[in-house]
Design a protein that fits this description.
This protein is mainly alpha-helical and about 150 residues long. Helices cover about 55% and strands about 0% of the residues.
Length: about 150
């Protein structure tokens, strides 16, 4: 009977490797009926992004630092994948966070923070691609070509 799964062992006996917050959650479910495994749906040890953004809007700089540290790597990789230019990705990365900072007072949790963050990044990328597409550099012989076009009058 040594090979039994951990679901039959009380949670208090096999949580030594878990962080303190998770041990508390596991301990809550230690009294579950035998044969059933209950797992927490959400671990609320970390505040949600929306809560952090509201705190930042109220002036809590530590909330912004936590948001930034959570999302900086994924946001930068997203921009780098789209732009394929590290220096341009750096510039856009700074602009996106600057827009987050500028809009903090008006932000409302109508959607997830990440949805809003990546919408800002997407819009900035769209502006960039639109500007490149509609403003190509003039050809070197542009004046000569224009002179050869007959006047419609």
């Amino acid at each position: 009977m040594q090979a039994e799964t951990t679901r039959n062992i009380p949670a208090s006996t096999h949580t030594g490797h878990l962080p303190q917050a998770r041990r508390r959650v596991a301990h809550r479910y230690a009294s579950a009926p035998q044969g059933l495994t209950l797992a927490p749906v959400n671990d609320f040890s970390e505040p949600a992004d929306e809560t952090l953004m509201l705190a930042y809007a109220a002036g809590d700089m530590a909330a912004f630092e936590q948001l930034y540290s959570r999302h900086r790597t994924r946001l930068y990789r997203f921009l780098l994948r789209q732009l394929r230019d590290p220096s341009l990705a750096d510039e856009f990365f700074q602009e996106v966070w600057q827009r987050v900072i500028s809009a903090r007072a008006d932000w409302k949790p109508e959607a997830a923070f990440t949805t809003w963050l990546y919408r800002i990044a997407h819009n900035r990328l769209t502006d960039h691609w639109r500007a490149l597409k509609h403003r190509p550099p003039a050809p070197a012989d542009g004046d000569e070509r224009a002179a050869r076009v007959p006047d419609p009058d």
